[in-house]
Amino acid sequence: MGVDISGILLKHKTSIKENSGTVVSVDAYNIIYQFLSSIRGENGEPLKDASGNITSHLSGIFYRTATLLENNIKPVYSFDGKPFYLKFETLKERRVIREKNIDELNIAIKNNDTEKIKSLSSRINYITDDVVNESKKLLDYMGIPWVQAPSEGEAQASYMSKVGIVDSTISQDYDCLLFGARRVLRNFTMYGRRRISGTGKFINIVPEIIELNENLNYNGITQDQLIDIGILVGTDFNPGIRGIGAKTALSLIKKYNNINDVLKAKNKSIENLDEIENFFKNPPVENIDKLEFRPVNREGIIGYLCNERGFSENRINSIMDSIEKNYSNANQSNLDKFF
DNA sequence: CGTATCCA
DNA sequence: TGGATACGG
Q1: What is the pLDDT of residues A99-129, one digit of tens each?
Q2: Domains delineated in chain A
Q3: Where would a tag sit more exposed on chain A, N or C end, judged by fewer CB atoms within 10 A?
Q4: Which nucleotides along chain B are within 7 A of a protein C-beta?
């Protein structure tokens, strides 16, 4: 998924604390997907309310947003709109994989293979309109701004970083760098532990920050050349050239200067090359001039999460207490603090 | 994923 | 106090 240019990137260890006082854009689908696949009960099923509606995304968004606010990091969420038409191939591939997983899951259920049921079912989830609308509703109650991107949410989130409306972008995908995000935060979670799927073991994961300009300088390339490296390796919009990884792509681009000459030398071609390049350079985005952060609507959240969706009122209230303690103060302007 | 709890 | 584990919905 995404573009794998990890091999040529400089990454720095970071932490939530180090990013205190910043505004970040969040690729909403990216994290909702993570929540749906990882927030699960012991039977491997996602969390559900009494009527059987999935609530993993609500749990994830509420607690994650709360953690950010408590640390004086203000998020704006960016939701996917209409996919770029060249993405349809990728989406089709994902659908095929999904159907294969469902078949395997049915076999595992028949064989009562609990470990396999768990690992397979965590991979089978897709984001429905309900999941999206419920997430937006919760963000509204939390006073957190969100943007409906005209096309890719990741492009929109990156654009906001590119033009300086936010300081950085939270995403697991490196595509953000191709879209021009100045800083990308990966593995941006409180407790750096992640379960290796299937096994019960944990690995430590460290939040990391990737700075676009530093990487362009470090590799001695321009933004356009970075985009071309991504396209050679393969993106959501093209399969990439067989046998070319990030490091090879970098040395080829440095040797030949641009992707057209690389392709000529290798006697290869990439379909819709100009269109893909142009999409990374100028994706459709919503222009935002100001982000509005409103106070948390306590009654709204209790009504929605606790009364409607069966969340514990004690838990939700205590989290909102700590948000109020740190965030309402942090939310004041410097002028307010001064007087 | 993130919080709560238990126990060395 | 912190590492493992149970639980949330």
Answers
A1: 888 888 778 777 777 777 777 777 777 799 9
A2: 1-217 (3.40.50.1010), 220-281 (1.10.150.20)
A3: C
A4: 1-4
